[in-house]
Specification:
By secondary structure, the protein is of the alpha+beta class. A hairpin with a 2-residue loop joins strand 3 and strand 4. Helix content is 35%, strand content 15%. Helix 13 packs across helix 17 and helix 15 packs parallel to helix 17. The longest helix is centred in the middle third of the chain and has 20 residues. One zinc ion binds next to strand 7.
């Protein structure tokens, strides 16, 4: 018991904690050290040895992601109003339990007697129990010691149980309202609401600090009292996280292609969790597919693009801006749901080596799948319907490229030159190679995104260009498009 008691010493005055308050750095001090005009300051820590708080997630050293935490000045928690209401709930209760147990069941005086703390001597020395506790002590001494120990163990374990997962705390984090949860449990709760899951205290501005250090007192109690269970709990959590990374996480959001940047605003709880898991992998990436069309039956979004995470900028409330880069395409072979987001077993899609050299192989070249007339994004201008059939587009790569460039010139010189400028700003400069150019060109066209998604499965740059040229010809055959009507 003495071994446990010494863990409840204040990190500053080294005496037994009196009204324990846990700061953002994870140190627990007596309230009087951090009190100022009746309020408690949870940062900065008055300990000279305390390292500053790192608020970055557990990003592997090999990861190339740029992680920008939320600026602390926006996120500093407001000082708390009342000391009495805000002492560390778990530390107070566990310390009281251990002290009571120490006074009831004296342990070896050689181990309990090494305390040099004068003020708390009456608490830790079983030989001089405080008067106020004497009647209880006498009553308890009549109980069989076995029963007493069971009762203590039960209460002790219960105080060290997370209210969210109902398991032993793992990496205990203490909130400004002084409630403790497993770090991962608290993170997931804050993904949904900025209120404390127990007392509803508003933790807005605290979310930035999710990766703060553990409560050092509770952690040391766990390690001393339950070294095996804690180790086992750690292995379980790590295993779950590893399993979660085995499948490819899939963000159902919008169309994107390889070789293009995509900026994402991550705010949905399930995707916040997905992002955290991605960041713990050495090569953080996720797949992105378009949502199925509302009218579409089955899974129409089997093809997507893998996005490599380049940078993450956290906002104080836990949302984030994520810069990504499309690396390659994939097809979903099998899909599932993990904690609310889609995961899948995917197969990478690359282009076949294109051996096409000229018109002589034209007849043997595979043709694109029949393409329905593009659905054009525009207000209903009473435009005449698209012609039923246009002659098939040419097949030679240089002719196809020429048509694309001519179309770009037409856009630049036409009524809406800003379209090209704006889109090339969004999707990056025009790529030199035909493979990426085909995707870039498709992104620029003012046609339906689901139509553009037909590019994803095509494994030949030439065939993709052919599809692009087909769309260009469809657009050019529209009187309103060639007459410079506004493109919605
Ligand atoms: Zn102290
Ligand atoms: Zn500290
Ligand atoms: Zn938990
Ligand atoms: Zn709370």
């Amino acid at each position: 018991m003495a071994a446990l008691l010494e863990l409840f010493a204040c990190a500053l005055c080294a005496r037994q904690l009196e009204l324990p308050v846990t700061l953002l750095c994870g140190h627990t001090l007596c309230a009087r050290h951090v009190e100022q005009d009746g309020q408690l300051r949870l940062a900065p820590c008055p300990l000279s040895t305390c390292a500053s708080i790192s608020s970055s997630p557990n990003i592997p050293s090999t990861s190339r992601v740029t992680y920008i935490p939320a600026p602390p000045e926006d996120a500093a928690p407001a000082p708390l109003a009342s000391i009495d209401l805000h002492t560390d709930v778990t530390v107070s209760k566990v310390a009281a339990l251990v002290r009571r147990r120490a006074t009831i069941a004296p342990t070896n005086p050689h181990t309990s007697g090494d305390s040099t703390d004068a003020e708390s001597e009456s608490d830790v020395r079983p030989s001089t129990p405080p008067i106020i506790q004497r009647p209880r002590k006498r009553r308890r001494r009549q109980q069989p010691s076995e029963e007493l120990r069971t009762h203590f163990d039960k209460e002790f374990t219960s105080e060290l149980t997370c209210e969210i997962c109902l398991l032993l705390f793992y990496k205990p984090l203490t909130t400004p309202c002084q409630h403790t949860f497993c770090a991962k449990c608290l993170q997931r709760s804050l993904d949904h609401s900025t209120q404390c899951p127990l007392c509803r205290h508003d933790l807005a501005g605290y979310a930035y600090n999710l990766h703060q250090p553990c409560n050092k007192v509770i952690l040391s109690v766990l390690l001393r009292a339950f070294p095996d269970s804690y180790g086992e709990r750690g292995r379980q959590v790590e295993q779950e996280e590893r399993d979660a990374r085995l499948d490819t996480p899939i963000f159902v959001c919008q169309l994107t292609f390889p070789g293009m940047p995509t900026l994402l605003h991550v705010f949905e709880p399930r995707y916040r969790l997905m992002l955290r898991r991605c960041l713990e992998s050495p090569t953080p990436a996720f797949g992105m597919v378009m949502p199925s069309r509302p009218t579409q039956f089955g899974s129409g979004n089997d093809f997507g693009t893998m996005l490599e995470i380049r940078s993450v900028k956290m906002l104080p409330d836990g949302r984030s801006m994520v810069e990504t880069w499309g690396t390659h395409r994939f097809r979903i072979l099998e899909r599932g749901i993990l904690d609310g987001y889609m995961v899948g077993r995917v197969e990478r899609i690359d282009d076949y080596p294109d051996t096409h050299t000229g018109p002589e192989s034209e007849t043997s070249a595979p043709l694109p799948a029949p393409v329905p007339a593009p659905h054009i994004l525009t207000a209903d201008l009473g435009a005449p319907p698209l012609p039923a059939a246009l002659p098939p587009p040419p097949d030679q790569p240089d002719v196809l490229l020429h048509i694309c460039h001519a179309f770009l010139d037409q856009l630049r010189q036409g009524a809406a030159p800003w379209v090209v400028t704006r889109l090339s700003h969004t999707y990056g400069p025009m790529p030199a190679d035909a493979a990426h150019f085909s995707f870039w060109m498709a992104m620029l066209l003012p046609i339906d995104e689901y139509e553009k998604a037909k590019m994803l499965p095509i494994r030949s740059a030439r065939l993709r260009l052919r599809l692009v040229v087909y769309w260009i010809e469809q657009l050019n055959s529209n009187w309103w498009f060639t007459n410079g009507c506004v493109i919605a």
